[in-house]
Amino acid sequence: MVYDLIIIGAGVIGGAAARELSRYNLSILSLEKEEDVCCGISKGNTGIIHTPALVHENTKKAEYTVRANHRWEKISSELGFEFQRTGALILGFSEEDRITLEKYKETGEKNQKTFSDDSRPPVQYRIIEGAELFTKEPGLNPEVKLALHTPDAGRVMPYEYGTALWENAVANGVELKLECQVASLKREKNIPEETESTQNLLVTDSVWEVKTSKGAFLSRYIINAAGHGSVELGKSAGFPEHSVEKVKGQYIILDRKKSPKINNILFQAPAKGKSKLGKGILVTNTVYGNLLIGPDARWIEKDENAETDIESIREILSGAEKSCRSIESKYAIKTFAGIRPKPKGGDFIIEMKDGFINLCGIESPGLTSSPAIADEIIQMLKDEGLLLSKKPDFNPIRKPIVKSLLNLDMKEVIRRSELPDSDLKKLICRCEQVPLKRIMDGIERGIPVTTIDGVRRRTRAGQGSCQGGFCGDHIRPILSEKSGIPVEEMKSREEARAYPRITPADIRKIL
Ligand SMILES: Cc1cc2nc3c(=O)[nH]c(=O)nc-3n(C[C@H](O)[C@H](O)[C@H](O)COP(=O)(O)OP(=O)(O)OC[C@H]3O[C@@H](n4cnc5c(N)ncnc54)[C@H](O)[C@@H]3O)c2cc1C
């Protein structure tokens, strides 16, 4: 069979494209090398829906941020993931910073003017200071002098969004193959005569042959959304070898039950000469209430992975204290890292040749931009001749997995932890109070879940202070029964993937 489309990479960019394309009568195959969706860049990031005020003018990044930013309420209500439009404060500490903040304000206004595609009134950005600032954000460090308020910033849990996209795409007919690594791509001149396709192919038409760890597949169009893998794949399809550096960012996350409530997302005006390193150390609550601080920025060599180190953790702690008085890092429960694909030219690379869409260097604000990048992909495919007829039975709705967080007292937690194994009310994760019902819901949605990490990302089991120390042993047999993978094998797969990380105990030692 010849597919109409193959999407390589199951992160948020591939997912946004897959979901949008699943609205049409197309045969779509998605190939992902990991054992689950959202295991790459889309897993370890800040999860901010950015304001156009922080994005360079006259770039694709600015265009997509403007075009996507206002759509998140609708997308989250359709796909059942948590989205909060909290607004952001970009903090200034001196009169020099005032000039930087004025520049951001101007950039935000210009970006909206240039790229806004409807008649919505423009979002107003304002510099605030004094009592107004400290009323808006009472926990600020008194050293903060002023801030740019951008009401259009928001936040999501990036992997909750990504999983929702993929669940919805699969429910609407997209075929997803996990643990299927693409090795090479080749343009085939003539297709075999007896091949099937949902579009009328001529035997003289050219198609792509995609060689993978699970065999070869044919497709008329390819979307290369392979994150860090996309430069190599693009090269094998005949594109130039784009220069994309790797920049690691590390984070600390605090126990949600001990986290202070921060009203806004807090950025900092970059220190003089450091604008390349981004907007300082960010401080925010996640959508589920944990305090999240980070990331730093370190250029890394090719093969370095997502481990964390004490030098970065120190930098993050002192950077966050510049913004907020009382961050109690003793309540840290985890450190993690993400790696940005930084294109040398500074902007996203989105290009098309011979029915192959090549996406490279999709760094921040790639998550924010993903709905608009999906639109761009569809437009490119239409321009290239792909026929798009709407499916009458497309269903945009995906039901949430995490509907609300329980707040039971300890007595009730113990009672519900001791219910029989078959009782859906039985608590599997005590820290985050996750019942068996939610675990079953998370793993029965059309995408095979074979790891503790996959359950953690979908249900919050294991995201509390013990980080899965208790619930892991309860979840493994459930997964084993579903997937047929023996419990011992599951454990060794997890160990093989685990990176050395700075632990909460290490953090307490340096306080
Ligand atoms: C530290 C950090 C902070 C960030 N913060 C923000 C933010 O706050 N807001 C924002 O808007 N954006 C942010 N971003 C950017 C955002 O996370 C990315 O733009 C987005 O997640 C990129 O998604 P993707 O689908 O392109 O890549 P990925 O999520 O990496 O997906 C690509 C997939 O392709 C798979 N793959 C690779 N090679 C192959 C192969 N050969 N065969 C099959 N599969 C393959 C990978 O396993 C991976 O799953 C941040 C990024 C980082 C690193």
Structural summary, described in words:
There is one protein chain. This protein folds into 3 domains: 2-42 and 159-243 and 346-383, FAD/NAD(P)-binding domain (3-Layer(bba) Sandwich), CATH 3.50.50; 88-151 and 244-343, D-Amino Acid Oxidase, Chain A, domain 2 (2-Layer Sandwich); 410-510, no CATH class. It is an alpha+beta fold and 511 residues long. The strands form 5 sheets. Strands 1, 2, 9, 10, 11, 12, 19 and 20 form an 8-stranded mixed β-sheet that branches. The longest helix is centred in the N-terminal third of the chain and has 21 residues, at 95-115. The protein has 15 helices and 22 strands. It binds flavin-adenine dinucleotide (FAD). Flavin-adenine dinucleotide is lined by residues 8-14, 31-34, 39-42, 45-48, 50, 181-182, 225-227, 229, 233, 249, 295, 338-340, 362-368.
